[in-house]
Each structure stands twice: as C-alpha cells, then as structure tokens.
Amino acid sequence: MILKCKRKILCSALLALVLAMAGCTGSNESVVELPEIGPETVTKQFYELISESKLRGMTPAKEAFKLIDKNSAHMNKQQFLQIIKKYPPGFMVEVGKVEIKGTQAVVAINYKMPSSFGDTYTVEGKLPLNVDKSSHTWKIDFTGDTYGMKKKDFMTLESKKSR
Questions:
Q1: What CATH architecture does domain 39-161 belong to?
Q2: Residue 107: closest CA among 142, 153, 63
C-alpha cells in the first residue's frame, strides 16, 4: 500500500515537473514582430532608387544607401556609389519569392544584363535583408555578410563584373 502511494506521488511529481519544464521553454521563446513594410517592398524600393539614379544623378542612390544594413555591409556611401555606378542604364530588378526566418529574410531577384552577343541574359540571385532593431525596418545586406558571402568575396565578384 505504501509502495503504491509513493509511486503515485512520484508519478504526480514527475508529471508536474515535465509540465513545468514545458511551460518554461514556451515562455522564453519570444515572438518576433516584423516591420510593417515587408522585405519585398524594401527590395523593390531599393532597386527603383538605383534605377532612378541612372536617370537623375546620385541623389536617389544616396536614398538607396539609407536602406542598407550598415552593420553588416561595412562600407561607406562613396564605396556604395562606386559600385552602383557600374550598373547598366535601365537596370531593373524583378522581385520573386521571399523567405523570412526570424529577423532575416532572403528575397529572390532576377535582372537582365547585356550580353557580349548584343542580346541580354537573365541573372538570378538572392538578396538578404535583416531587421534593424533601432528603426524596426528591413535593411538590405548589400554585401551578403549574413547570407554566407563575406564582404571580401562580394567586392571581388563586383570587380570581376566591371571588367
């Protein structure tokens, strides 16, 4: 009889402990509130400003620079302007599928580039974005440092494109 009673108490205590542990882990996980303006809209705005800068000068490009995650890009405005000066006139980007994981997003993009044969070809890529905690907005990781490509690799790739 005492053994059955101890077993019931032990099972009850174990069940209570399991439920308490489950409750603790659930309460520590915070739900991330995402910015009102989505990563696809920020991506479109970014590339529209770059495209506009090809027609109206560098003022729109300076606005595009404000949409960059400066913590991950590690570049100044002049470096950014030098890179986008190399973009061809009429440069337009089509925004595709968006994947959001926590405070990071990856937006599929594609754009047309002039070919050596006089035609164009389509380039498909991915653009990473991060939520900026201070402004609670999506910021573009222009160099891809949070998406597996380090700044050095990105700059090397950009210099090869311009040749």
A1: Roll (3.10)
A2: 142
Residue 156 CB: number of other CB atoms within 10 A?
A: 11
Q: What's the pLDDT tens digit per position in 38-83?
A: 999 999 999 999 999 988 888 999 999 999 998 777 889 999 999 9
d(CA 161, CA 84): 12
Q: Which two tokens stand for residue 9?
A: 């108490």
Three-state secondary-structure class, residue 21: helix
The pLDDT value given to residue 23: 47
Burial grade of 60 (CB within 10 A; 0-12, 13-18, 19 or more): middle
Tell me the pTM: 0.69
How would you list the strands of the sheet with 93-101, edge to edge? 93-101, 104-114, 120-132, 137-140
pLDDT the model gives residue 19:
46
Residue 118 amino acid letter: G
Nearest residue to 48 (alpha-carbon basis) of 35, 32, 28, 67: 67
